[in-house]
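Worked Example 4.2. Read the sequence first, then its structure tokens.
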Amino acid sequence: MSHPHHHGHAHAHAEYGKRFALAAIFNALFIIVEAGFGFYADSLALIADAAHNVSDVLGLVVAWVAYTLCQRKPDARYTYGFRGSSIVAALFNALLLLLLTGAMAWEAVQRLLEPVTVQSGIVAWVAGLGVLVNALSARLFTGHKHELNARAAYLHLAGDAAASAGVAAAGIVMARTGWMWLDPLVSLLLCAIIIAAAWGVLREAVMLTLAAVPPGVDGVAVKAYLAALPGVAELHDLHIWGMSTTEVALSAHLVVPCGHPGDVFLEEISAVLRQRFGITHATVQIELGDGTQACMLAPEHVV
């Protein structure tokens, strides 16, 4: 029986956590500016955009904390360390965004029914600044979108940049036409876009929480590869799950009647799983299948 554990963990580089910090600081400063001018100009679009930025800052802080926790070493109780905290952070991040966006949409509906006059010039200028701040912040994560929290942060910030652009355009049109209903209408349209983007992150985070095969890993292909290995008569108790938003683990039992294939065989399996399927942590148990007692975990319905 062999249990080779391969720790080819793809840890983010040292500057990864700093990106969350910088993005959080930039957006926190802009929230103060945007919310202040939003109340001054009586613009729901600016206030809503500032509220959405609050959710971004909270999400970035949570992701930053999760990143820090992921660096902690395993111990006797938390044998995987705190890698799973990145999944919890992604789930919280997506839920927070959906809740705040829903509140924003409700207020926009009220404004559509009873439009109010806004200072459109201020709206256009402040929203234009928001496009710049959010675009620069989103750019911090363009090289890390394979990681769920980084992708969530990117979607937050890119969504804010798009929201600010829409608000700026609405401000210009309102200044020229006096159509004050554009302010809540733009807010509603942006809510729909943001919800659609956040839903994907939420769905993936829930899947990881339930230990589903992570997106991007072909579980059927992995099973076919292991079952077709030389000398393998049977494969059972195969599990593939995400230890974090970046690291994938696998465990499986291989029945090899001709005898233990040796460590080189196991090393080759781990290398292929890592390179072809992105599975960074593989645990393979070898069974000879020569006993009268079958493995208790052999039936597929047993976990």
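Now turn to a second chain, presented in exactly the same format:
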Amino acid sequence: MEINSQSQLVLEQMNQWGQEKAPFAFLIDFECNKPLCWKLEAPKSPFKFNFQGIKNYADAPTNNINSKSVPFAFTPRPISLEAYKVKFDGVKREIEYGNSFLVNLTVETPIVTNYTLEQLFILAKAKYTCWLKDNFVCFSPETFVQIKNGQIFSYPMKGTIDASIPNAEALLLNDAKEIAEHVTIVDLIRNDLSRVSENVHVSRFRFYEELKTQDGLLGQISSEIVGQLPSDYATRIGTLIFDLLPAGSISGAPKAKTEKIIFEAEQAQRGYYTGVAGYFDGTNLDSCVLIRYLQADGTYRSGGGITFQSELQKEYQEMINKIYVPIF
């Protein structure tokens, strides 16, 4: 992906802090137009996060509101199936023309809720939660990359089902469309990691997990891919992260052409939605893909991967299933 002058400055700052082994947090939008980074000890950062228990804030009150004293209200108003079909058909045509194998199509859904973004951030229970003041809140279940002990890990997530459906796990694991989509993304991520590391391999393939939502459980499929980084990776940590963007699971394959298809179908920039956020502690790194995302204007963003095997009704329902907040 081409980056602008602002991205170049952030990339260089991340490299410098990596060389100094100075802990920092970063936030990069899908288009790489307005990335941000902060030293972790920076006072009054507008970006707060809780990434698998690692926080950059002290626990705070939520203006005397909680999900027990004030029942959580969350009402989505999804676009019609007919409106979704217009976008879906446009993407399917591009796939049929051979311009892409897989396109991540997302849409906006207006939400009515009685909680503020900050309250949602404090109360939500997810692997990765983050909040950019006056902009968005995100409760992501998906890792972008992790760096541990000189190795880089990625966990692409592709395949979603209502876990209350009988035999949900078996149905998802044996769905031909979901298998093909997942294999495409795993291959793409293997290629991406090979650009920054060696001995890249799939260490776990298509494992099933369940995620809690306010309406029940969702089943999802992920894989684990790992590579060996060079010993001086920290000095190029910014370059490494930007080289991997955008995340394959929320763009598609091949990336460059698919990004154009996405813009034509969605007719809007995504901004921080489906971008990445993370922190570097001086040696190790953890980061997430910014999905399960609610904007300050009350718009939720969700979607899924479209392939030549995709069926309209199933993709529409998957988009709706992903409109949730993990408050329970």
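Notes for the reader: The CA atoms of residues 248 and 255 lie 7 Å apart. The longest helix spans residues 176-194.
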